[in-house]
Write a structure and sequence with these properties.
Number of helices of chain A: 15
Number of helices of chain B: 16
Largest sheet of chain B: 7 strands, mixed
CATH architecture of the largest domain in chain B: Roll
Number of strands of chain A: 2
Structural class of chain A: mainly alpha
Protein name (chain B): Peptide/nickel transport system substrate-binding protein
Keywords (chain B): Signal
Oligomer: heterodimer
Order of helices and strands of chain A: HHHHEEHHHHHHHHHHH
Largest sheet of chain A: 2 strands, antiparallel
Distance between the termini of chain A: 17 Å
Shape of chain A: globular
CATH class of the largest domain in chain B: Alpha Beta
Radius of gyration of chain A: 24 Å
Strand content of chain B: 15-25%
Number of strands of chain B: 22
Family (chain B): Belongs to the bacterial solute-binding protein 5 family.
Helix content of chain B: 25-40%
Subcellular location (chain B): Periplasm
Organism (chain B): Aminobacter niigataensis
Amino acid sequence: MNRALRLLRRRLIGSIPVLLIVIVGSFLLLEAAPGDAVDAYVASVGGDAGMIEALRQSWGLDASPMTRLAAYLWALLHLDLGHSVAFSRPVLDVVLERLPNTLLLMGAATALSFALGTALGILAGARPGSARDRLLSIGSLALYAVPGFWLALVLTIVFSVELRWLPLSGMETIASGKTGFARALDIARHMVLPVTSLGLIYLALYLRMMRAGMAEVWRMDFTLAARARGIGRRRIVLRHVARNALLPLVTMLGLQSAQMLGGSVVIESVFSVPGLGRLAQEAVGSRDTPLLIGIILVSAVLVIVINLLVDIAYAALDPRVGANEANA
Amino acid sequence: MAGFKISRRRVLAGSAFLLASTALPSIGWTQAKKGGRLVVAADSEPRNLNPAIVASNGVFFVASKVVEPLAEASFDGEGGLEPRLATSWEGSEDGLTVTFKLREGVTWHDGKPFTSADVAFSALNVWKPLQNLGRVVFKNLEAVETPDEHTAVFKFSKPTPLQLIKNALPALTSVVPKHVYEGKDIAENPANNAPVGTGPFKFAEHKPGEYYRLERNDKYWGESEPQLDEIIYRVLPDRAAAAGALEAEEIQLAAFSAVPLADLERISKVPGIRVITEGYEALTYQLVVEINHRRKELADLKVRQAIAHAIDKDFVVKTIFLGYAKPATGIVPQNDKQFYTPDVATYGFDVAKANALLDEAGYPKKDDGKRFALKLLPAPYFNETKQFGDYLRQALAAVGIDAELVNNDSAAHQKAVYTDHAFDIAIAPPVFRGDPAISTTILVQSGIPDGVPFSNQGGYKNDALDALIAKAAETLDPAARIELYKEFQKKVAADLPLINVAEWGFITVARDTVKNVSNNPRWAVSNWADTYVET
């Protein structure tokens, strides 16, 4: 545990320069985009010159970019993420409101694609080159190639519009007054389609990786030795081949978490899930710099934490990693 | 437990219903069934939900059920109006005074009585200084006198036509409670996101990214109104999702063309769903080609005429709007009953004539078949404005003008066209709001500061036209004022400061069970007090 804490501290300190670059970079990028938050706002509601000037003043956009960046960083030092101009609310509130939705959606989708991908990968890798292997590989690649919005729309048409088995969109039944278990069940029902759409797409990554890893392990000496010792095939596949091929997948899981937190704008839009991806898109559209940087910062911190967890899982799966970590 | 109450009236109504259902089975006594929940699609969540500050359709769509104006537009009411918070209005001879009699016995949602002080406060502290449209229409409003609790007398410093004030009543006069706003920062008041009004529905909650919920105001002044118990606005950002949600019966109504035009034919055949084109008559959007007159080629009237002749308006209506629009003749739309005149210069689709005009103007085709190049910026707000950009590029190529398409998002478009003037031609969707003085004359008037959206930022200056606009702004006699605006339409069509291509209202798609839909010319942004869901 002590080691994990040390690791955490080192990671956090090491990530400060990265976060700083990310903040300044996003700030400058939005600054370089034509039009500011007031332009985005008056484009939707109209207004005259006096109103536009008053808005720029009250939203603090009349100062020079460098002054605003300095003010933002100063506030950030005091752990203040600032005020979203597009939502007229504190950035932290807006982001934290959406974060659970994104975590739930993407967490479930990642779990689905990891579990199903690994399982199918083991099936495919048990006999590399067999008909079953080819079928699974081609099927998963086809899913990977399908555009996300198309898969999502087809699933909704079949299961929501035609069969009416599952709700079409949203996080939960609106103003249903459900609580506790009934509410959890309701949310789960709403999550089935978006999680399936996302999970099926990423399934191929894990399946292919598992299969390739297993194909490699099959050729290794210890596998041959195990076979020579007359160990049953099932035991060889699960205990020797699959277990050794699993490590790279855990790495993949950590990498995917970054993508996961960015959310999926398309899936979130189609299923109207109020998540971080859609929020980031709105922040860019409304030139809401504090909000965009807030989203990026919160996501970055979470990615760091998740990768830390992956490292710890690594140590558990492969004792060699732990030994190296102790020396480093 | 708490919701279960038996009153004598309910028992009576229930037995009347039973009696009626046996006596008149064929009529279907559905009127007796009050209540119900209406779920509609919403595509945006406005930053500020106070219609007194932001008079825009996105805000009205939700807020007009909560906060009421002095009067609402009506198909058959006197002067096209139906009283809401005001019961009558009268102008003085000199045009300096307008007297409103206000409705009695109205209470705010928090229980306080509605009085003339609220109207005076809204007019002087909100509409005039803060509202996007009110800053223009009420700029000469000096004072509002309140001789008694139900009379508000507007005093203007310059003669102001009663006709203009009347036409502005539906959109510009949402009344907010003085006791909630007084003494605080009005622009940042929390009530701007949880409005308190006098309307048939109370604001209940907003879950960002998910929905708005309004609930029935039991103390509403309208007799046996509202009919609905609840209205829910589901946020559906994906346009394809609205059609699916209607089919799956997750929503019952989608207004403002939330269902894309291309889906209408298919969805109109789904049993239980109907496509409604009425209810937007007072919210006409116009497809306009904005012209930067600073470009020497475009400052030449012949070139502008040539561009007008190069556009096949019928094709645009048929192909881009799939028939759900009308070709425009001028700057005032045809469905306006007061001001519109068809008696203006017209520019039929005629490529040969366009080519001849360009030759005459001194811009012959060069060896590559091109005359000159232009930068074309379509507004990103509607699919149709973007598609028209693609069309216009081809139409101009046919007459030898090489248009380069520049596609921007909202903020970038706003800055490029209205602040930096970095365009040659742009495509805009301005709105006609029932009177040319509200948001139409500024499209061609000179002397407007940089940065004002949907205004003349093309550097056009025509002294005669400016004089006409100024004169109409202070002409009190309604007939004379209408004549001036007819003259205005003729002058615009003759000199082409901009080119009007088409005009459109939106489409509502609703399930058959939703009744009293589209029964006024601003239906989607009116109060829905008489709307109900048949169950």
